[in-house]
Amino acid sequence: MITASQVKELRESTGAGMMDCKKALEATNGDMNAAVDWLREKGISKAAKKADRIAAEGLAYITIEGNVASIIEINSETDFVAKNSEFTDMVKEIGKIIVDNEVSTMEEAMKLPSSNGTVEDLVVAKTAKIGEKLSFRRFERIVKNDNESFGEYIHMGGKIAVLTVLDGANSEVAKEVSMHAAAMRPSYVKSSDVPTDVLEKEKAIMKEQLLNEGKPEDRIEGILVGKVKKYYEEVCLEDQIFVKAENKETVSQYVKNNGGSIVTMVRYEVGEGMEKREENFAEEVAKQING
Predict the structure, then answer these.
(1) DSSP codes joined into one string, 36-57
(2) Would you say residue 131 lies in a domain?
(3) What's the CA gap between 153 and 162, in Å, rounded?
């Protein structure tokens, strides 16, 4: 009888998925060392060796079925692998799995059934097969109502993905908003979405800049009002000038003119906020000399 603690121990030592660890222990009658060898022979445990590598390439992907949509980011180490059919098929499968299941946390998502055990098992198996560290980084699952429209836009083959929901406007308008967001990189939908601590930090920086410029202290609060408005225009989708506007209308005004309002927007840019892989400088020089 294979125990859960045995499976856990093997999983921690090899990085293989739970189902693979269970199979290995069953195949070796619970012998831990033999189970490690079994996983190595099957090419599964090598996924563990890649755990400390940086995976900052990959794909952002959107799946829509009726009133439910998912937007996901799955990373690889190189852009080459991100174009591999093994990788892209896995991305599509996970996108559909998220749409089909009511989950909100990564922990829940990783436990969902897939074509290879769980989603976690699928990622580990593909890591072993492809030979690079792969990582399911993040997702959002959005459910809209019948009066709302999804707008999806994927840029540069999956480097950027934007999913927008509009109330009252059609999917073409929603797609235009998603294309705008891909280009202009808003961090928030509306000004009220900006966290208080983020805004206060920005205001403190603005105030310091004004003092350094020699502005009188009694005028600074008044000047800050205009600077905060400018900040919102830079980081909030609704307040940005719509990229296709000829009369400087904001995105909010563009949507309103088309009979709608913005409900939500999710923008994923592959690898944003992650440490990028750095090539060894000496190796790079050698490549150039020998190239």
Answers:
(1) HHHHHHTT-THHHHTTTS---E
(2) yes
(3) 5
Q: What percent of the chain has pLDDT over 90?
A: 69
Do both 172 and 230 map to the same domain? no
List Cα–Cα distances, 3 to 29, 42, 119, in angstroms.
Answer: 11, 22, 22
Residue 255 lies in a domain: yes
Mean pLDDT on 180-199: 97
Reported as a single tens digit per residue, the pLDDT across 51-65 is: 556 678 999 999 999
Residue 18 has a CB neighbour count (10 Å cut-off) of 18
Can you say how many angstroms the Cα of residue 184 is from the centroid of all Cα atoms in its chain? 17
CA 208 from chain centre, in angstroms, equals 34
Q: Do 72 and 163 reside in the same domain of the chain?
A: yes
Domain CATH number, residue 202: 1.10.286.20
Q: Does 239 fall in a domain? A: yes
Judge whether 127 and 47 are in contact, CB under 8 Å.
Answer: yes
Instruction: Quick: pLDDT tens for 138-183.
Output: 999 999 999 999 999 999 999 999 999 999 999 999 999 999 999 9
Sort strands 261-269 and 68-76 into parallel, antiparallel or unpaired.
unpaired
Same structural domain for residues 174 and 196?
A: no
